[in-house]
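Quick one:
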Amino acid sequence: MHEGQGKGMQRAGVIGTGRIANRFMPEVRLVSGICVKGVYNPHQESAEQFAARWGIEACGDLTEFFREIDLVYVASPHETHYSYIKAALKQGKHVLCEKPLVLKREQAEELFAYAVAHKLVLFEGIKTAYCPGFGKLLEIARSGAIGNIRYVDACFTKLESTDSRELNDRLYGGSFTELGSYCLLPVVKLLGNGFEDIRFASIKGENGLDVFTKASFRYPGGLAAAVCGLGVKAEGRLMIAGTKGYVVAEAPWWKTANMEVHYENPLEVEKISESFQGDGLRYEIRAFLNMVNEKGCPGLELTSEDSITLADIMGRFMEMESRE
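Output:
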């Protein structure tokens, strides 16, 4: 175990100062055993503003930043994740990184292999994976109550401002890189990584970025659809269909709280509720901290194999986009 990384207070550093980093700060303060010491952003003014808002230190030098902390939360733009994760791991730091972890399968494989070899934790922050309601939903779907799972349909859309980064970053913006990780999560968790075919269909904005994308999967004995949009609004629900019935979680299912189990008899409906507190980041922070402190995690959360599969799918999408 690295010096300073015992089971006492873990010193965290934040890389990035955008919206998600600002949502992280109040959530991390609700988790015992971790405190944020500093923030890094190559744009020093942004780091100083963030630091002043949250009462932490701003650091303009990455090496110095790593020296003062035990673990890192990466909340920078998608395309910078790989380099920041690699730098942090090489400094012996555990890493919690926002989704998508990276945008290529080989990058994910490389980073996880390094983390394992050096006994470090690398953790992808898809908050849905760690909230109690989503765990309950997976438990019900896998219990046999709805029979064998044959189809997963996940949709997440929100209407972004046309001047947002997500709709103007020509290389890394768009709906699938921004929201796809959420919709892919239940597909991979329930049907696995052994899909036989995947196809993407997108509606593009004037600048060529996807404002609505559907990823369609074919598995041995199963199908799935992951739908996301930033410029088209749709019913954002998650539906899991089986040979005896189906489970549905209405929007916002990615903050899983309420779900229903339906059977052939339309009058036979089971309603289940679980709590979802705040922005939900506290769940992933707590799970990450448990792994850092060698307590392990319950078995239903995101594994390294899951994250590698998600990076593989993102990479396939990016390759398709670059060819068009």
